[in-house]
Amino acid sequence: MEKEFNFHHQFLLHRLLLFSLLLFPVLINSTTTTTSIQHEQSEIISRFQQYLRINTAQPSPDYEKSTQFLLTQAEFLSLESQVVEFVKGKPLVILKWPGSDLSLPSILLNSHTDVVPAEHSKWVHPPLGANIDEQGNIFARGSQDMKCVGMQYLEAIRKLKSYGFQPKRSLYLTFVPDEEIGGHDGVEKFAHSDVFKSMNVDIVLDEGLASPNENYRLFYAERTPWWLVIKSTGAPGHGAKLYDNSAMENLFKSIEIIRRFRASQFDLVKAGLKAEGDIISVNMASLKAGTPSPTGFVMNLQPSEAEAGFDIRVPPTANVESLEKRLAEEWAPASRNMSFEFKQKGTTVDYLGRPLITATDSSNPWWTLLEEAIKKANGKVGKPEIFPAATDSRYFRQVGLPAIGFSPMANTPVLLHDHNEFLNQGEYLKGNDVYVSIIEAYASYTPPGRDSLPRDEL
Ligand SMILES: [Zn+2]
After folding, report:
1. Contact 366, 161 (CB under 8 A)
2. Which of 152, 184, 234, 418 could form a disulfide with 247 if both were Cys (CB 3.0 to 4.6 A apart)?
3. What is the 391 CA–ligand 1 centroid distance (Å)?
4. How far out from the chain centre does Cα 167 lie?
5. Is 421 annotated as belonging to a binding site?
């Protein structure tokens, strides 16, 4: 029994050894592949970290360092590069992957290099550290807005070049300054420049927002800021006297009316009838009144002037004329000694007077191509949205170009401009593949008319 057992045992051992030997090369091979993938991924993450660690926070971004970093990346990838400055010290880095068919217009992938400042003491990880926690979350200012996207464009190109992909259309990458302070010395000047005209751009991709669910978010328009100040005047008087038409009373009537409008718009969002970007939002930003005294304000005096400031965001779908009428007749009517001025009043139309909206239907092949490319890379797409705030996309739309806002961050809380901004490394890597798919589709796209031309001629 013992002998038999031994024999059986030896037989099994022999089989096991043989099996292991057969499997050995497979195991070695798969271990090598896993290691090389891990190695490649850690290099990708480390390049992202390097970019995040460059302090490009407003109000004094280190553009010199970011420019150097980007030019080095371009060199590694054999991309053509050019640095232009419309305002001294505010460089715009333009990288180019030339296409094989020069008769086709180009693709522009835009990202801004600056970030908003961070209150370091409110962060769990240092905002310039790009530390990775146990869940793989990369913490840094700019991890969502929008150094991720800028680096993902580059990583996608790296991958496509390694496949031997050759774009038909030229592909431009722009890394622009000052988006976070309005883009006036960056894209606003760039979009009207000869450099930009010579690029012959057909479609622009720019930033979007993170999505807390599994659907990526695509933006076809954005709300434009109207910064309104309303002023009231009235007879001054003793603080104990009740009388009509005081400046404060006039102002408060307006504030009450504006507050009701705000609530009615907000109710539409709360009821789920409209998205945040579809309504006109109004928030009071300032309130100025009172007669100063050494200890604060004179308390027994009703002032003769008062003013309030509002940040209003207007979607391009809104009826601007009716809003202007509402403003003049209800919010700051001359009948109540009110006047108003705009600190900023963005346009809702392009240079031809068309609403600043990028079409999301079949009339815009870029939209369809984008959705399909994302799906091809196993991404899901939500309903098209209007971006609630302003981005550089508006300057491209104003010169009549389609521009789509997209940052591939699903299952991610929206933390732009917030404390502890982070992006998960898995999500970041997934985003690279999404851009591989998008660039493949965009850079290969030929309008149907062009293909059929020779046949039509026959
Ligand atoms: Zn941004």
Report:
1. no
2. 234
3. 7
4. 25
5. no
Which pLDDT score, from 0 to 100, does residue 449 have? 74
Q: Is 120 marked within a binding site? A: no
pLDDT band at 219 (very low <50, low <70, confident <90, very high): very high
Contacts of 158 (CB under 8 A, 6+ apart): 76, 77
Pairing type for strands 281-289 and 403-406 reads unpaired
Q: Residue 7: pLDDT above 80? A: no
Residue 139: both structure tokens together: 């913490």
Output the CA 184–ligand 1 centroid distance in Å. 14
3-state secondary structure 4-37: HHHHHHHHHHHHHHHHHHHHHHHHHHHHHHHHHH
SS3 readout for 305-335 = EEEEEEEEEECCCCCHHHHHHHHHHHHCCHH
Query: Over the stretch 306-355, which tens digit does the pLDDT of each residue have?
Result: 999 999 999 999 999 999 999 999 999 999 999 999 999 999 999 999 99
The dihedral over CA atoms of 373, 377, 382, 386, expressed in degrees to the nearest 10, equals -50
Which residues have CB less than 5 Å away from ligand 1 (the ion)? 145-146, 207
* Residue 378 burial (10 A CB sphere; 0-12, 13-18, 19+): exposed
Q: Are 420 and 427 in contact (CB under 8 A)?
A: no
Q: How many CB atoms lie within 10 A of CB 39?
A: 10
| Given 114, 155, 385, 392, the catalytic residue | 114
From the CA of 399, how far away is ligand 1's center (Å)? Answer: 20
Q: Rounded CA gap, 214 and 375, in Å?
A: 12
CATH number belonging to the domain at 48-222+355-453, selected among 3.30.930.10, 3.40.630.10, 1.20.1050.10, 3.90.1150.10: 3.40.630.10
Query: 224-314+318-345 architecture in CATH?
Result: 2-Layer Sandwich (3.30)
Q: What is the rounded (10 degree) CA torsion for 127, 390, 179, 342?
A: -120
List phi, psi (to 5°) of 392.
Answer: -65, -20
Selecting among 179, 185, 385, 392, the annotated active-site residue is 179
Q: Which amino acid is at 69?
A: F
Cα(293) to centroid of ligand 1, in Å? 42
- The rounded percent of the chain whose pLDDT value lies above 70 is 91
Is 114 one of the catalytic residues?
yes
The pLDDT value given to residue 36: 86
Residue spans per domain, the chain: 48-222+355-453, 224-314+318-345
| Catalytic-residue membership of 350 | no
Whether the predicted model's global pTM rises above the 0.90 cut: no
